[in-house]
Amino acid sequence: MILTADIGNTNVVMGLMSERGKLESRLRFPTDKRRTVKDFMIGFEALVNMHHFDFSNVEGAVVSSVVPELTDSVVQSLRIKVGEDPVVLSNKLELGMTIDIDTPDKLGVDMIADAVGAINEFEGNLAIFDMGTATTCSVVNADRVYLGSIIIPGIVISQDALTAKASQLPFIKFEQPEHLIGRYTVDSMRSGVIYANAAMIDGLVDRIVDELGGPVTTILTGGVSILIKDACRREVVYEPSLLLKGLWDVYHMNHA
Fold this sequence. Notes:
It catalyses: (R)-pantothenate + ATP = (R)-4'-phosphopantothenate + ADP + H(+). The chain is of the alpha/beta class and 256 residues long. It contains seven helices and eleven strands.
């Protein structure tokens, strides 16, 4: 089994994975840049003990972090608990794909993990939408070349901005609306969240198909994508564990 740590802008997700994409246990807590090495050690101990495992069952660890202030603390905590340095995801590792963009060092490692997970699951041209703090779309062609991305304000950020700036619009719970054309404010806002994002995905993929000159497999993962997938008119594949699968693949390609 391997330990995984996905340090995102909104949440830190720790996982204990027994096989590709299969979590034996998971812990999720808000990202806080004040967390210490000891805090993360306690988290990993709780994760491993959750199903009566111990660290003798753990062969190694892999880290994906878009919060540099926390990366060293997580790495140190894993070094202490596992007894060796974790694999820390970056564009410099063996990934099974070529990154062909102008600034590969600036590419988010979460997007790299998504792409690695996708190319080992699907063939052909891929458009990978990860709906988290930001909504990102990574485009990989059939030759396993990462061509670039599209970055959009995430659903939660957009909704928070809307309610903060429009005093008569309430905070809402993300749920399926009763109708496309809402008959009261909350349902109208839910319709905007669900159907506008689905239409965005449909429209962007249409344009990606035009640019690549061939069919594209559309993959949705992360955040509220489970609510969006059924509202899309294009065929989409929902892969909630895509990033974790990518971390598993990266670990096994790079662990000495």
